[in-house]
Amino acid sequence: MKKFLLLLGSAIILSSCGSIESYNEAVTKMHPVEDLQEDVDAVYKQLKRLHPRLYQFTPKESLDYKFDSLKMAINKPMTSRAFHKELAKVTKFVGQGHMSLSPPSKRFKRKARKALNKLKFDINNLETEYLDDKLFISRARGNDSLLLHAQILEVNGKNPQALISKYKKTIASDGYNTTFHKRAAGKRFFGYYNQDIGRFDSITLKLKNSDSTFIKKYKRVPKAKKKTETDSVKLDSLKKIKPKKLTKAEKKTRKLKLKKERKDRQKYGYDYSTKTNYRNLSFVGKDSTVALLKIRGFSKGKYKEFYEETFAALDSLGTKDLVIDLRDNFGGRLNEIMTLYSYLTDDNFTLINKSEVNSRIPILKMAMSNSNSLATKVVYGLLSPAVVVHNLLHTSKKEGQLYYKFKAAKEQEPSPLNFKGNVYVLINGNSFSASSILSTQLKGSKRATFVGEETGGAYNGTVAGFYKNYQLPNTKIRARIGLMHIDSKYKTEPDGYGVKPDVEIVPTYQDRLNNIDPELEWVLKDIYNKK
Predict the structure, then answer these.
(1) For the residues 245-274, what does the mean pLDDT come to?
(2) Element (H, E) at 193
(3) In 3D, which of 112, 114, 40, 107 has the Cα closest to residue 71?
(4) Residue pLDDT, tens place only, 429-439
């Protein structure tokens, strides 16, 4: 066995080294017309095989026409990145925001990767938002904190409004929804910029704040070296001060403190890159009696303890009003939203229906994607008997359609600590995926009042769950294809739109400058008026 693993590891390393050159050549060269057309056919073939709701929003005749038209329009060689932009303009008509295309980037050998990992790029300290046709800095960390709310006038000499207009042409949302386009383009602006031009090592921003216009340049620079204990000892020796030796009790206290910190970070879903918690409970309002549950995503940390503690606290305090903030929440785990909903209802419930699939072995389909590494395929190959049995036990057929049963498709009981007071939910165009499924459940059961704008995720369900990441044979573009249609029992007409607010409020750039949260302010005013 040891010899087998050694040979396997050696083969993977050798094949990896040899494939980097050929891969980089493929992603940078001009591809002939016939290769580009072949890739158009390849991605459409995968969609037909795997996507359970391919023609839900665009009829087959129309989608066939769009793919055929793209093939006919390709009359000259293109790079992978240029082709990606044209292909994405067509695949967006599938009408599923989870279905995405990623342009390939140049790969680096191990030595080069290690060198790149020693660099930092402070543009990553900035987060952006797009309101009133203005792109501005919505969050700034570190030395850039003074740039908060500064408007971005130019990005390397280019107009951000024109760039966002271009990006929106390739951004897919669920169904016919439009709120997701601007919101996503604003929130993920630098990500789309990177997709557009490829990896960049420097960027120049022209910024405007209340009283001036100025230029801010960023480039990749070496990371500051972390201070080690040896450095501290050297520094202390220069000062002729010996480092304090900790007692056993002090060492134990420090160990317990670090353990608690790690546990809390798991509980709150701490994001090390942004230094923020994904889950947070606070109390707001004139008398600080309104609970505000801010959830930035359902994908990080261990959530069960957090929700148990949160609703135990609300119960002990006799809290009457709860605001759940799902704005800019792109989704995450079904099990987490199922757990959260169990604290918001006093009835037995089933969060989602069984999910439509096109295969009895969706997990194996995902694992054997041609974009996965050889090692991943070997591991899943060895585990395939167990994976196949698991898949078969979770799939069933009814009236010719295959279905996969998640845990969230089973009837659940409400938590004994379920909240019985008033619930308000704040939503916007970036409320997507799992946050939209939760919103559908709350809206359909008439459990909450919704404030904000239409969610980016569809009311009637989305194609997500597990994904096959298929790499196109010539251009190496990756297509992420959802394998499961996930929906609640609640439905609305017409199909193809998000969860719409009971009270529509769209914030303005001026609101941000004045540090006003108009959606939350409306909720607080409504609560006090009812009192």
Answers:
(1) 89
(2) helix 189-197
(3) 40
(4) 999 999 999 99
Residue 208, amino acid: K
CA 344 to chain centre: 25
Show the CA angle centred on residue 95, arms to residues 89 and 99, nearest 5°. Answer: 75
Q: In degrees rounded to 5, what are phi and psi of residue 251? A: -65, -40
Q: Which of 247, 228, 198 is nearest to 81 (CA)?
A: 198
Helix-then-strand count for the chain, H and E: 17, 21
Cα 325 from chain centroid (whole Å): 16
CA dihedral (300, 303, 309, 313) in degrees, to 10, reads 70
What's the number of CA atoms in the CB half-sphere (13 Å) around residue 414? 12
User: For residue 11, what pLDDT is reported?
Assistant: 47
Q: How far apart are CA 96 and CA 167, in angstroms?
A: 16
Distance from C-alpha of 498 to C-alpha of 436, rounded to nearest angstrom? 8
Judge whether 451 and 525 are in contact, CB under 8 Å. no
| Tens digits of residue pLDDT in 153-168 | 999 999 999 999 999 9
145-154: Cβ within 8 A, 24+ apart: 147/207, 147/209, 147/216, 149/209, 149/512, 149/513, 150/207, 150/208, 150/209, 151/207, 151/208, 151/209, 151/509, 152/128, 152/205, 152/206, 152/207, 153/206, 153/207, 153/208, 153/213, 154/204, 154/205, 154/206
pLDDT at site 234: 54
**Average pLDDT of the chain, as a whole number:** 92
Distance (Å) of CA 19 to CA 7, 138, 370 = 18, 41, 14
Give the model's pLDDT for residue 175: 95
Helix (H, G, I), strand (E, B) or coil at 277: strand
pLDDT for res 240: 55
List the beta bridge partners of residue 490: none
Give the closest residue to 86 by CA, choosing from 43, 28, 45, 54: 43
Q: 329 φ, ψ to 5°?
A: -100, 105
Q: How far is CA 167 from the centre of its chain?
A: 17
* pLDDT tier, 27 (very low <50, low <70, confident <90, very high otherwise): confident
Q: How far is CA 163 from the centre of its chain?
A: 21
If you search the block for the tokens 């069933």, which residue do you land on? 396
Tell me the HSE value of 328 on the side-chain side, using a 13 A CA sphere.
14
Q: What is the mean pLDDT of residues 183-199?
A: 95
Write out the DSSP string of 59-101: -HHHHHHHHHHHHHH--S-B-HHHHHHHHHHHHGGG--TT-EE
8 A C-beta contact, residue 423 and residue 472? no
